[in-house]
Design a protein that fits this description.
This protein is α/β, with parallel strands linked by helices. 24% of the residues lie in helices and 16% in strands. The protein has helices at residues 32-40, 72-85, 102-107, and strands spanning 11-15, 44-47, 92-97, 111-114.
């Protein structure tokens, strides 16, 4: 999957699913519409959760890239490596979750944002 934004603003937003995104179990406060709007503005949206409730298109294909087979910090780092392979270098890296796992974000050099506070 190749990412082609309308315009690049160099912000990587990685998300947990359950309790964070509206389709998670439990449902979270972050809407798919909000993620699509951010993506349209040039943000790069990546899922870093092993949840089966990941956002999908109508044809069943994942809506956003996903890295979920390692620890959370490693999944975050894999998302950055994925962008580097495409010649992109995000200047802001934000991890959105309801788990309070800010230490995982810190290990990967991301900013932690609680899902309830994610109001861009």
């Amino acid at each position: 999957m190749e990412f082609t934004p309308k315009r690049m603003i160099n912000i990587l937003v990685c998300l947990d699913v359950d309790g964070t995104i509206e389709i998670g179990q439990p449902n979270g406060p972050v809407t798919i519409k909000k993620l699509e709007d951010l993506e349209a503005e040039g943000c790069i949206i990546v899922i870093v959760s092993p949840s089966p409730n990941i956002p999908r298109r109508k044809n069943g294909v994942w809506r956003f890239p996903i890295f979920a087979d390692k620890s959370r910090a490693e999944n975050l780092q894999d998302a950055v490596a994925y962008l580097h392979k495409q010649g992109l270098d995000p200047i802001f890296k934000i991890y959105v979750s309801d788990n309070g796992d800010w230490h995982e974000a810190e290990k990967a050099k991301f900013i932690y944002c609680d899902a309830k506070m994610f109001m861009i």
